Amino acid sequence: AELMLEPDLVRQIVSEMKRRTTSAEVTVKCRIGLNVRDTWGDLVKFVLASKEGGVNKMIIHARICVLNGLSPAQNRNVPPLRYDIVSRLVEAFPDMKFVLNGGVRFYEEADNLLGFDATTREYKTE
After folding, report:
1. 26, 18, 85, 103: which is closest to 58 by C-alpha?
2. Which of 48, 63, 71, 90 could disulfide-link to 79, CB 3.0 to 4.6 Å?
């Protein structure tokens, strides 16, 4: 998670990974922010750096990461889920793919999220 503090370094890492491989997809997995840097602008800067490095798909854990004060296990549960932030990313970067990560524990939760349209922030029903 701390690499989110260094978007330029992430851009370089991603670019080098893309340069060295032709057969594997390069993706970035991140949180929506860090407790020490948790603004929309910071997240956009990080996504832009990843995109400029050559990534077109990101896996987003829809919580912030608390760098000190929470254990790794607590970081997976204590910060609230913010699926709305991932929705904003979908709107802001329509040419990229975002995979939602975090908080799905039961089939019903997964099924509910499958009907979620991030562009309208509404649930689709058939």
Report:
1. 26
2. 63
